[in-house]
Each structure stands twice: as C-alpha cells, then as structure tokens.
# Entry
Amino acid sequence: MKQRVALFGGTFDPIHVGHTTVAEHALCSLEAQTLVYIPTRRSPHKQVFPVAAGRHRKAMIELAVAGKEDFEVSDCELRRRDPSYTLDTIRQFDRKYNSKAELFWLVGADVVRDLDRWYRVEELMDRCTICVMFRAGYPRPDFSGLLAGLGTERVEQLARAVIETPLVDISSSEIRARLAQGQDVSGLVSPQVWEYIRKNNLYMLENGPVRGGF
Ligand code: ATP
# Structure
C-alpha cells in the first residue's frame, strides 16, 4: 500500500486545540502515517495578513506537536513568495515523495463555499484528495452549491472524502481577540503554546508585531 500523507495548511495564528483535535482524528481516520502542518505565509483565501510572524506561528506548531512522532511541520509555504497556492505545495510534496505517496489535503468545513474558486482546483483534486472536516459553528459539509462550478463527479469525490471530526468550537480569531483584551486562553491552546505566546508577548498589544513577516 502507498504511504499516506495528510497535509494540513492554514494560517495557524495561533495553532489551537481545534486544529490539533481534528488533525489527530483525521490522521487516524485516513490511516495516514504522517500529518504535516503547513503554515502559510498569507492565505490567498483571506483578506488580511497573519498577525504573528511566520517564525512564531511555526514555532507554536512545533511546540503543539512536540513528542508526537506522526506529526511534522513544513515551512515550505512560509519560504515562498506570494501568492502561494495549494497546488504548488501539493506538487512540492509529490516530488518529495517521488510520486509514491498518496496525498490528502485537509480543510475545515468553513472553506467549502470557496472551494470552486481555488486556483486550478480540478488539477488539485487530480493530484490529492481534498478532505473536508467538520467544524463547530458550520453546517455539515454540503457541496451542492459547487455543482454548477465543479460538476457532479467532483462533488461526489468531495462528499466521499468528508471526515466526521469532533466539533471543537475554537478559532484563532477568537483567541487573538481574547488576548488583545488581556484575557486568559489556557485550554484553547496547549500549555506550551500559551507559554510561548506570553513569553513573546504575541497578540496582546493593539499595535502588535508587524503583520505577516517571517
Ligand atoms: P481565523 O479565526 O484566524 O480565521 P482559524 O481558527 O479558522 O483562524 P486557520 O489557521 O485559518 O484557523 O485554519 C486552518 C484550517 O483549519 C482551515 O482549514 C480551517 O477550516 C481549519 N480549522 C480551524 N479551526 C478549526 C476547528 N475548530 N475545527 C475544525 N477545523 C478547523
């Protein structure tokens, strides 16, 4: 059987318990050997730049997965100039594994409505399996709105790959908002990530660090 590798891209600004819970569930459910977190320099799907620098976001992911053998972090997107597309990342991982691994791209249910606008999404779907995971606060993934853009076959492909992850009602924006008001976020991020945030004074100042740097 081919090696199975799950790739989990996102801003991770910061990584939280929602991310790690669904990632662990997805790894098991896909019977993948490895899950790679891929912090993005700047998401083509978001209007704003990340708040924390890439090196901080990467360091927090490393802390969140420390000691977990099946989990890795890649800075391939942080190193790339804008715009950075998922397809480029998939091609890069395909080369890394000499086309011998089966690649899965994980996303939360909040991205469903935009999927048909992703850069060359059909080619992307030929090269990897896009797995939509459940997300608290969003409906069960329903791809019918994508029928006109993607067609029946692609929609069925997406529906077959849905992963029923546990619902964890946490978002990075909520965490940043709490921190900006001086509130505690323990329980929403791992203790090590919480310590890193405090040590580096991330997200706490209104005019915090320059957005989006490395
Ligand atoms: P923000 O609140 O800043 O938009 P976020 O919490 O959505 O951030 P991202 O880093 O943008 O976090 O998310 C990366 C990926 O993880 C996306 O595919 C997103 O859908 C998914 N995701 C984030 N939080 C959850 C969650 N609580 N449950 C399931 N999926 C999630």
